[in-house]
Every structure is written in structure tokens, then in C-alpha cells.
Amino acid sequence: MTSRNKLAIVLALVSLVLLWPGIVQPALTIRATMELFGQSRELSNETRSVISAVQSLHNTGNNFVAGLIVLFSVLVPLIKAALLVPIFALRGSTTSYRLYGVVQTMSKWSMADVFAVGMLIALLVGKGTANLSAVAGTGFYCFAAYCLVSNAAFQALKIEPPTPVAPTSSATTSSPFSARS
User: Fold this and answer.
1) Residue 142 near residue 18 (C-beta atoms within 8 A)
2) What distance in Å separates the CA atoms of residue 108 and residue 130, rounded to the nearest whole number?
3) Average pLDDT of the segment spanning 94-113
4) What is the rounded distance in angstroms from the CA atom of residue 67 to the CA atom of residue 73?
5) pLDDT tens digits, residue range 28-51?
6) Which CATH number is 3-156's, of 3.30.1460, 1.10.287, 2.60.40, 1.20.140?
């Protein structure tokens, strides 16, 4: 195994370590206030992780958005990481190279998980009708770090196409497509 692929595996493992707090730790705190008779009144103060936001969206009937967040923030990252096992176990085979292509294609969609988190932030901000303040939490930074490290891991990954096997010339097999004398 090349040092480049060893680096890719280490980075992929680090990205998975970052993914967990990225989805369960508080990602964003939104605070809404309103001025009333010269005093500031707090209307809302919500802190959400990616998982708690998915639960909230599901409970309020926003299943499509909840599904997008689960797909791009949880499932795609786990599938990409899980595909590393057969890629290296079947190294040198056509299947390994095809799976490598699948992972490379999925990595190109990595901005979709950032988009999903952006949608989460937009939904939280959209609930307020007064002065809003937003503070990114540990989960946000861990998730952003996961995205960057995961992209680096899959950019470092390099799987060579399988070497074609040359047909043996000693065999005298006939084919229905071969020229007949």
C-alpha cells in the first residue's frame, strides 16, 4: 500500500471521529429578542445539533428537509467510509476500481452536506420575527472540519485500474466471430 493511501485511510478515520460530534453536539444557537417599552425581551433561545434538528423537522412534518439532512450529513459520509473496506480488501480488482469511482463521485457531492446544514440554519433563522443572533457551536465546527478532512482523504486516495490480463496465444479456441479460412 502506498504512503498516499495510508494517509487517505488515516484522514478518513480522523474525519469519522469529527463526524460524530459534528452531528450530535450543538451546531447553532439562535436567539430572538424584541424591544418592548425600552426593554429587551427574549422571544426564543434555541440550541440545536444536526440530529436534534432532524428530529424537530420530522416532528413538525418537514420530512423532506429532515431526509435531506440525514442523507447528506449522515448516510453519505458513512457510506463513503464503509466503501473503503472493500476498496482495499479487493485491491487490484475491477470491483475495487469501480467502487473507487463511486467514492470519487460521492466526494464531488460533499458540498451537499454543507448545503443541508445551511438549510438547517436557514430554517432556524426563519422562525424568528425580531432581532436575531446566531452563534455557531462545537458541532458546527466539527462538522465543517469533517467536510474538509473527508475531502482531503478522498482526494489523497489513489487506486490504480486493474491490469488487463493478456490472452494466451497457445490456445487454439475458435470463436463464432473469428475469421475462417
Assistant:
1) yes
2) 38
3) 78
4) 10
5) 887 777 778 888 888 778 888 889
6) 1.20.140
Which among 178, 153, 157, 159 has a CA at the least distance from the CA of 19? 153
Domain boundaries, the chain: 3-156
Rounded to an integer, the average pLDDT of 81-110 is 82
Report how far residue 177's alpha carbon sits from residue 173's, in angstroms, rounded to the nearest whole number.
11
Lowest mean pLDDT among 30-44, 85-99, 107-121: 107-121
Question: Distance between CA 149 and CA 57 in Å, rounded?
Answer: 28
Residues 134, 125 contacting (CB under 8 angstroms): yes
Grid coordinates of 148: 474538509
Separation CA 13–CA 106 (nearest Å): 17
Give just the sign of the alpha carbon dihedral 7, 8, 13, 14: positive
Query: Is the pLDDT score of 121 beyond 80?
Result: no
Cell numbers for 87: 476498496
- Which residue carries 485511510 as its cell? 9
